[in-house]
Specification:
3 domains; alpha+beta; Phosphorylase Kinase, domain 1; 14% strand; ATP binding; Kinase-like_dom_sf; cell membrane; Plant_RLK_LysM; Transferase(Phosphotransferase), domain 1; Protein kinase domain-containing protein; four-stranded mixed β-sheet
Length: 714
Amino acid sequence: MLRNPTSAGRRPQPHPHPTSPPLTTTAAGAAAQHHRPPAYVTPELPPASHHHHRPKPRPFALRSAAQAMTPLTRRRLLTTLLCLCALAAPARSQNASATPAPASVEGFNCSANGTYPCQAYALYRAGFAGVPLDLAAEGDLFGVSRFMLAHANNLSTSAAPAAGQPLLVPLQCGCPSGSPNAYAPTQYQISSGDTFWIVSVTKLQNLTQYQAVERVNPTVVPTKLEVGDMVTFPIFCQCPTAAQNATALVTYVMQQGDTYASIAAAFAVDAQSLVSLNGPERGTQLFSEILVPLRRKVPQWLPPIVTRNDVSATPPSPPPTATPGPSDVADNRDGVVTGLAVGLGVVGGLWLLQLLLLGCLWRRLKSNGRRGDAVASGDGGRSGKSASGSGGVGGERFLVSDISEWLDKYRVFKVEELQRGTDGFDDAHLIQGSVYKANIGGEVFAVKKMKWDACEELKILQKVNHSNLVKLEGFCINTATGDCFLVYEYVENGSLDLCLLDRARARRLDWRTRLHIALDLAHGLQYIHEHTWPRVVHKDVKSSNVLLDARMRAKIANFGLAKTGHNAVTTHIVGTQGYIAPEYLVDGLVTTKMDVFAYGVVLLELVSGREAAGDGGGGDLLLADAEEKVFRGREDRLEARAAAWMDPVLADQNCPPGSVATVMGVARACLQRDPAKRPSMVDVAYTLSRADEYFADYSGESVSVDGSGEIAAR
């Protein structure tokens, strides 16, 4: 029997104090030591019921303190110590014969014979650390939709999990460039009191560790987390090899009382396969991550679900602690069969009802295409198929099978809502290009009107979730005209290019603001290059696709040309003059390094305040001008050349020369003609964060720094 993180009938145990030594040296104690928080974790921890760790009380060795205690305090202390000893005893007896090996803090290695990326799973228990008992809330924690989570566990999308119910969370496991470890990235927004360690062991239930979080977020300072920051948490995973005979591997965290034998029985695999995958030591380590081969879609031990609309339904009772007698077993077997039959009947009825509703919807769309019903889209759909509307204009249509799994991920908008919100798409609401400002129900959105099937763009947008990417709120399809409308969050200050070219608005962009914009853009590109699988290449990085919010922080927009994968070749060259990488223009090579090249051009725009290509049609004039006036010459004169070349609006401001020179050095590295010599966005973000540090001690005078801005390519 697999146990919940907090066993039934027992008070949840508090976390160890960050600085307390262990009371015992059992295997469980060793495991707790392995999960000890880093030095920067503050002692103020969340409520004890949200944690899974065994307490490690302080030793009471100070005689003066003992003498100062009242008799009542001594009695309470003695009772507490006896309880702690009683709790520690089972772990000691169970694990005394085992010699635990230290668990990895970096995750599982990328298997040499595995194929990456791949489908993987993590076992997550519902109802802990304040996460609501709702498939949507639990899916949001891992960046998956309600439909995906329900499908992976053979549940209805209207079901609510019971407290402590184990769920298989589907993951996209990958091996990022330069990392020896495999993981599935999930984006988490920092809340008050969060640290890397607290989030890892509470909300993510030890499916990752804080050391790995630090490694994949090299530009984030763990001691300076701010509420609202988006941090990548790597969920440990691995892709199976052919020899392992598994459809996927499940990341499972060892709980109190777990053994390889009990886990193997639950997953219907042999215990020896767990030993082969993880080694014998990990099976004795509390809270260590192990891999379990999955050979069926849903493990047989998943308990019944609670239907959200059935008020009479109650969560399943906790498992019995005593071994039942023969008569009890027979009665229980009858009850299980009856319960299983009822459960299957309910689930089957819900699925049948859902299929009937979808069938009716599809027939209605076919017969009444002129009504322009709105459909929301999201995760994993295939390209829609073209069909002609009856008596109307031919348009791109989504099949119901394409959109059924997306309906819960995005908001559904109707054509009539968008028409009212934009006054019939009046030019007064036009922001830029085909993007309109819409006021719908008191909320402001940006609506992008498209004349083609947006399924490919949606397939990319549903994968990404980052504070430096414009958020997709929903979409709508007008089946009568074939129009598709993508509805985004409204970003208040518009595009970067308009801010730079408007002299009045450009004065708001002081040097530090421009540097933060460059960092925001670098973080957004780093995310789609390094933390999505398959990788995403934006292909259209330019200042008009960088939007600024109310705080003048940058967000990347317009994924209309984006492609997944790496090192692809195309004969259809599209892009904007002045930003196109040479290898893409000549050979059609699509890699992340083409985004790096375009990013270098945006850096030149931020420094100079000028367009990438002038109205005269002279091509990449800005790059050519920078090469002639800034990049050529002695390195020790780079600061002076950069200061003379930068935006005149910045001339009246105190700009640290070292900071400007560093940015120009990064731009030069990004604009190398050979893509192999360009840096990754990880390196770019790190170097620019150093440029921001020049403000700390800058007083307005010339500073003595290395202005070369050298940055290594990888």
